[in-house]
């Protein structure tokens, strides 16, 4: 990396050093998993997730340079988050309910019907966008025409001048695109009826429609992260602490294959083509998008060391709220500059570390990561003790951690609104349940249910 190895090309010594350092990350993850007893403990989840996000790029994209400094930062960040999570949990051992109580049938409906409403409004967001953009039903039914239309919308979205603003109603309903899967993951675990479980799976449809219309992969990735985070948070509440079960592995394999084909199709649509002979070019783009983040972060970090430390104090971390308040205009991808990859592509996926470091310097970024771990540890402890009210907080912590290889989760207003909405829904259910408890049983039951 320029500034560290004197050349933009990857040095074998640097690659081997980064791989050796990655063993430390693996050791931290295994140690936290053994100490906590589950990968759902935030102290184990964060380093375990970065074992995949940080090491696989070194293997899948070995030509892209990753400095030892970038890997060292990931290790330090993992230690800080794990330490915060252990402190929040009060140690590595966790007291769990022996017989967790399920929510009642009516409470499942109180959770399920908002999911249905969000699913409908999320699809309405897509319908509004399509109508305002001139997309007809005939375009949707003809794959060739759909590819051309999707490409035109993709180009218009990134046009610097003359690009029409997105429809207001479509933007207003956009949070429901993400709220539906966020509740869907909870309903899938909480409900025993397959009709509700099927609806919970269908909550991914609005995000898939966004990706088909606008060829933006982020919508599906955001929704999948929200669904998975709420799914595992509720599983933990029900006493299910296993992650790598046989069923999970089979489903992950099938969905991984389907997602690969889907994103290949999206990549072709971005080039306004259905010609499969371009698959090799799309493959390069997908590999860069999926595994280029470590190299991008590494190159930016080397440049950061050579510049003066002038923290931007929330300009990027709070880009969404600042744009909403009219203080600045957020650009696609958050950052103006992009990094040239050796594969010939460009990328602006700087991970969630760059916004924190650039806004608050390295010590400040580590402090925020420690707070993330602390909040995650506290909510994890409360969920294990049977506190349903802590489920949205833990799910939000999971979402933030899982999204760090891409960017900082809280940059986006729609996602922030989604988390707030989940909290309000759970608070309402909790309030309703407490109101129904008779006085002489309330104190005895509330501590182990909600």
Radius of gyration: 22 Å
Largest sheet: 2 strands, antiparallel
Structural class: mainly alpha
Unreliable runs:
1-9, 438-450
Global geometry: globular
Strand content: under 5%
**Helix content, binned percent:** 55-70%
Strand order in the sheet with the most strands: 1-2
Beta strand count: 2
Order of helices and strands: HHHHHHHHHHHHHHEEHHHH
**How many helical elements?**
18
How does this model look, in words?
Helix 4 packs antiparallel against helix 17. Helices cover 70% and strands 1% of the residues. The protein has 450 residues and is an all-alpha fold.
Outline of the structure:
Helix 3 packs parallel to helix 15 and helix 4 (105-132) packs antiparallel against helix 17 (413-436). The protein has helices at residues 12-36, 42-60, 68-89, 105-132, 137-141, 143-157, 168-190, 194-202, 205-214, 218-237, 246-270, 279-291, 293-305, 319-324, 353-384, 391-403, 413-436, 439-449, and strands at 339-340, 346-347. The protein is 70% helix and 1% strand.
């Amino acid at each position: 990396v320029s500034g560290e190895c004197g050349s933009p090309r990857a040095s074998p010594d640097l690659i081997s050093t980064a791989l050796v350092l990655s063993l430390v990350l693996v050791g931290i993850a295994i140690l936290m998993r053994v100490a906590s007893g589950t990968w759902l403990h935030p102290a184990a989840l964060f380093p375990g997730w970065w074992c995949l996000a940080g090491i696989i790029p070194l293997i899948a994209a070995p030509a892209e340079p990753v400095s030892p400094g970038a890997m060292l930062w990931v290790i330090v960040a993992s230690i800080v988050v794990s330490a915060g999570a252990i402190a929040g949990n009060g140690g590595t051992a966790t007291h769990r309910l022996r017989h967790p109580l399920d929510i009642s049938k009516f409470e499942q409906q109180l959770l399920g019907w908002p999911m249905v409403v969000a699913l409908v409004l999320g699809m309405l967001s897509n319908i509004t966008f399509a109508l305002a953009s001139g997309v007809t039903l005939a375009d949707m039914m003809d794959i060739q025409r759909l590819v051309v239309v999707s490409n035109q919308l993709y180009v218009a979205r990134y046009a610097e001048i003359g690009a029409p603003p997105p429809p207001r109603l479509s933007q207003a309903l956009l949070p429901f695109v993400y709220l539906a899967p966020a509740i869907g993951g909870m309903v899938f675990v909480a409900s025993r009826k397959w009709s509700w479980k099927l609806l919970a799976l269908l909550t991914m449809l609005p995000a898939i429609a966004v990706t088909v219309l606008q060829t933006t992969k982020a919508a599906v990735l955001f929704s999948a992260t929200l669904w998975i985070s709420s799914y595992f948070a509720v599983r933990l509440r029900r006493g299910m602490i296993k992650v790598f079960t046989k069923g999970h592995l089979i489903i992950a394999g099938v969905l991984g294959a389907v997602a690969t084909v889907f994103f290949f199709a999206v990549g072709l649509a971005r080039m306004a083509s259905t010609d499969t002979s371009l698959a090799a070019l799309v493959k390069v783009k997908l590999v860069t998008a999926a595994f280029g983040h470590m190299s991008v972060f590494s190159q930016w970090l080397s440049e950061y060391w050579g510049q003066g430390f002038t923290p931007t104090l929330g300009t990027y971390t709070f880009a969404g709220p600042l744009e909403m308040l009219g203080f600045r205009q957020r650009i696609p991808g958050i950052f103006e500059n992009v990094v040239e990859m050796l594969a010939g592509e460009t990328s602006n996926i700087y991970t969630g570390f760059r916004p924190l470091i650039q806004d608050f310097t390295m010590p400040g970024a580590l402090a925020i990561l420690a707070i993330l771990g602390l909040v995650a540890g506290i909510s994890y402890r409360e969920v294990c003790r049977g506190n349903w009210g802590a489920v949205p907080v833990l799910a939000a912590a999971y979402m933030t951690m899982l999204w760090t290889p891409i960017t900082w989760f809280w940059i986006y207003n729609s996602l922030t609104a989604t988390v707030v909405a989940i909290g309000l829904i759970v608070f309402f259910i909790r309030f309703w349940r407490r109101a129904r408890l008779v006085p002489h049983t309330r104190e005895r039951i509330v501590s182990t249910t909600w």
